[in-house]
Amino acid sequence: MNKGWIFVILTCLFELFWVLGFNIASTWWHWAIIITIIMIDFYFLAKACESLPTGTVYAIFAAAGTVGTALMDIYIFEGSFSLAKGFFMGMLVFGVILLKRSDDGAKQEEAAS
Amino acid sequence: MGWFFVFLAACFEITGVIGLKSFSQRKSLKHAVLFFGGFGLAFVFLYLSFLSLQVSVAYAVWIGSGTAAAVLINMIFFGESKSKIRIVSLVIIVVGVTGLKAVS
């Protein structure tokens, strides 16, 4: 596995922290922490792009943020779960796995040629 | 006016993505400004659009268009893989992100 994927996981994880922060921040020092987390998060995002295609990394970053916020709404902020939400979440997970597999496949072809 | 802000936010997101690509290749001040400045302004305009549009809808359109544009730009200008399966999976992700945000 490309070590870039570790940075993808890190950037997605930190993204969830600042999104959660956006929802619960109430004073100035909360925002100071959030902005620090965003900076670290974006640094990991750039590190991930050093060894992986930027389009892939960014799409996964957006997907993780979207699924993460939807899950937070449901579990932490007591929003509702609907069939439509479940459907689109499943679709996202499927898309990300397919994308990762296709990029891995392209790399193997490159290595073979 | 709200949709104009969404449009501006998407444009700056694209600036940020180009900055992301450049910054990951070479860490220079110019690239860092493109990267952080682009995303920073994108968030400002996105926030402004929330004043007159429904948050979930505005956010869905913004992130969907931005993600699609990020992929296209990297394929066209930075020579990333244009394989069919890659394009199909990216379309699935963009539809999924936009759809999930729209129904949330």
From TrEMBL, chain A:
Signal peptide location: none
Organism superkingdom: Bacteria
Parts of the chain that traverse the membrane: 5-22, 28-45, 57-77, 83-99
Principal place of residence: membrane
Keyword Transmembrane attributed: yes
InterPro entries in UniProt: EmrE-like (IPR037185), Small_drug/metabolite_transptr (IPR000390), Small_multidrug_res (IPR045324)
Keywords, ordered alphabetically: Cell membrane, Membrane, Transmembrane, Transmembrane helix
Membrane topology according to the record: Multi-pass membrane protein
Compartments (UniProt record): Cell membrane
Family to which the UniProt record says this protein belongs: Belongs to the drug/metabolite transporter (DMT) superfamily. Small multidrug resistance (SMR) (TC 2.A.7.1) family.
Protein name: SMR family transporter
Organism: Shouchella miscanthi
Lineage: Bacteria, Bacillati, Bacillota, Bacilli, Bacillales
Automatic annotation (TrEMBL), chain B:
Highest taxon of source: Bacteria
Topological category with respect to the lipid bilayer: Multi-pass membrane protein
InterPro entries found in the cross-reference section: EmrE-like, Small_drug/metabolite_transptr, Small_multidrug_res
Keyword Lipid biosynthesis attached: no
Subcellular location as annotated: Cell membrane
Residue ranges of the TM segments: 6-23, 32-53, 59-78, 85-103
Record's keyword terms, sorted: Cell membrane, Membrane, Transmembrane, Transmembrane helix, Transport
Family (UniProt): Belongs to the drug/metabolite transporter (DMT) superfamily. Small multidrug resistance (SMR) (TC 2.A.7.1) family.
PANTHER family hit by this protein: GUANIDINIUM EXPORTER, SMR FAMILY PROTON-DEPENDENT DRUG EFFLUX TRANSPORTER SUGE
Protein name stated in the entry: Multidrug efflux SMR transporter
